[in-house]
Amino acid sequence: MKPYIACLMLTSPDGSLHPSRWTKSPDGDRSDFSKVCDKVREGLECQAWMVGRVTMAEMAKGVPHAPESPYEVERPWHFANREAKSFGIAIDRSGAVHYKGPDLFGDHVVALLGADVPDIYLAELAADGVSYVVAESADFDVGQLLGVLNRELGIQRIVLEGGAATNGALLASGLVDELNFIIAPALEARSGTDSVVEFGTEGLAGKVELALLECQQLAHGAVNLRYAAIKPSV
Ligand SMILES: NC(=O)c1ccc[n+]([C@@H]2O[C@H](COP(=O)([O-])OP(=O)(O)OC[C@H]3O[C@@H](n4cnc5c(N)ncnc54)[C@H](OP(=O)(O)O)[C@@H]3O)[C@@H](O)[C@H]2O)c1
């Protein structure tokens, strides 16, 4: 069974992905908005957060450190810590992220990997104490990989936290159940900047529909626009 996926993004009314570029507000600053976001995250009661390869690389900050051979690796999955209370999931088809240890922010790391990641990369993850699931076929089916996490680790609810490309890809494939856009009182307004959801030149029209669930007024001038993501009606 696929875990329930709630996307949570801190953004500005103009949809900016980069709080460091925002205008100031008398209502609060970036750290206030991020605390507001933390509170909404808590309310979502998820056992795991999930991000794309680019975002995870920014947080993991590791460099390649392949172990010496010989090594033996497990496929299609290796779970270094099944008892963890919470997990951080990376969608990393090519195996490009390097870690400094088994956990990030106190959560156990699980990488979702493409079928052709080399054994030497899997050996590096295992040596770091990082868990992984390797896709069984060339088509990288994130839903199937998440089904494994549900079955093997009991993960039932995941908070999806970007970036734009990951949000777009998962919305297009129908894996996202709800969106929470925390809108802070700030603007970026640079031309050509990243927005919180992106799906190539094609966009998402015809691939998903949003239905408003609620609009919550939060602290520091922020609001949470909460939507159900549903399959298109035609
Ligand atoms: N404001 C906020 O709250 C917030 C939150 C998160 C991130 N960010 C910012 O967002 C920026 C990164 O965003 P981004 O859009 O460039 O990158 P991203 O979404 O973090 O990562 C995109 C990559 O993830 C992999 N991926 C994700 N979903 C996939 C799928 N369904 N199928 C196959 N591959 C998938 C692909 O990796 P491959 O290309 O290797 O296949 C893809 O290129 C960073 O600057 C970060 O700081 C901001």
Q: Which terms summarize this structure?
A:
single chain; 234 residues; alpha/beta; Dihydrofolate Reductase, subunit A; Rossmann fold; 11-stranded mixed sheet; 5 helices; binds NADP nicotinamide-adenine-dinucleotide phosphate
Overview of this structure, please?
There is one protein chain. Helices cover 23% and strands 26% of the residues. It has 234 residues and is of the alpha/beta class. The chain folds into two domains: 1-47 and 156-234, Dihydrofolate Reductase, subunit A, CATH 3.40.430; 52-153, Rossmann fold (3-Layer(aba) Sandwich). Strands 1, 2, 3, 4, 5, 6, 7, 8, 9, 10 and 11 form an eleven-stranded mixed beta sheet that branches. Strand 6 (107-113), helix 3 (119-128) and strand 7 form a beta-alpha-beta unit. It is globular, with a radius of gyration of 18 Å. The mean pLDDT is 97. Bound molecules: NADP nicotinamide-adenine-dinucleotide phosphate. NADP nicotinamide-adenine-dinucleotide phosphate binds next to strand 1, strand 2, helix 2 and helix 5. Residues 3-221 form the Bacterial bifunctional deaminase-reductase C-terminal domain. GO terms for molecular function: 5-amino-6-(5-phosphoribosylamino)uracil reductase activity.
Give me the secondary-structure topology.
Layout: E1 4-11, H1 30-44, E2 48-52, H2 53-60, E3 77-78, E4 87-92, E5 103-104, E6 107-113, H3 119-128, E7 131-134, H4 142-153, E8 157-160, H5 164-172, E9 178-183, E10 209-217, E11 223-230
Parallel strand pairs: 1-8, 1-9, 2-4, 2-8, 4-6, 6-7
Antiparallel strand pairs: 3-7, 5-6, 9-11, 10-11
